[in-house]
Amino acid sequence: MMVHFQAVAAGSPTATAVEAAIGLVFGIVGATVLLAVPGYVLIASASRARFSHASSDREFIARTAVGGIFIHALFALLWTPFLIQRVIDASSLTWQLRLEIAAWAVVVLVVAPVAMGVGVAKARNLSKPEWIPTFLDWMRVSQIAATSDAWEHVVDGLEEGSWMRAWIKRGDRVVAVWGRYSTNSVAGITDSRDLYLEEMWETDSEFGIGEKMIGTKGVWISSDSIVAIELYEGEDDG
């Protein structure tokens, strides 16, 4: 039994269809990358690299798509259509045009998303003007939207110098531990959910704050021992 192979001639209907299909696939992949990369970078910067804690893959994809659309919409007014027109009008890609395309890629895919993400992260705690929290909610990068549960929401909003009263289990009892959350303190956002307070303060007979404990280097509290944590605004020592 003999099997005959017939080569597909260039320019034939079959070859044209194959080339069109390949072009379509590459076009879809390229468009997806161009949309996803700036959105991914923006969300990662705005969420302080904590986007992996999103409630679902669907939520992460939605945030990335919205971020990418916003970046491209911004540059559609400033740069992109003018660059496309210059590429179309050019008889060949000169080194100046190649350099502008490279600059566009760096700015649109990296620089602008990072700058905007950092700005969004700093604007999270702003409540006025009212359009700022509304815009951040729409972008799905507000302080609440960027966290997956109450613990992460609290940790993300902690300010330097905040007071904490942690109620922890100690044997059969629950005791109060006072501490100061400052620059070297750490609240875990991984599955450990532990807490380190760099300053430890005494607890008085009514569970209020006493004197600062001298000679200590803080206190580490495991997540298993935490019953509740109360937060208070930072004030001067004592």
Could you explain how this protein is built, in words?
There is one protein chain. This protein is of the alpha+beta class and 238 residues long. It folds into two domains: 15-139, no CATH class; 158-232, SH3 type barrels (Roll). It has six helices and eight strands. The termini are far apart.
Topology:
Layout: H1 13-46, H2 57-78, H3 80-89, H4 95-123, H5 131-139, H6 150-156, E1 162-170, E2 173-181, E3 186-187, E4 195-197, E5 199-203, E6 209-212, E7 219-221, E8 226-232
Antiparallel strand pairs: 1-2, 1-8, 2-5, 3-4, 4-7, 5-6
The shape is: elongated
Uncertain residue ranges: 49-55
- Tell me the total number of β-strands: 8
Overall pLDDT = 77
Q: How are the strands ordered across the major sheet?
A: 6-5-2-1-8
The first-to-last residue Cα distance is 97 Å
Question: What's the quick description here?
Answer:
The protein is of the alpha+beta class.
Task: For this entry, give a set of tags.
elongated, five-stranded antiparallel β-sheet, SH3 type barrels, alpha+beta, 8 strands, three-stranded antiparallel β-sheet, about 240 residues, 2 domains
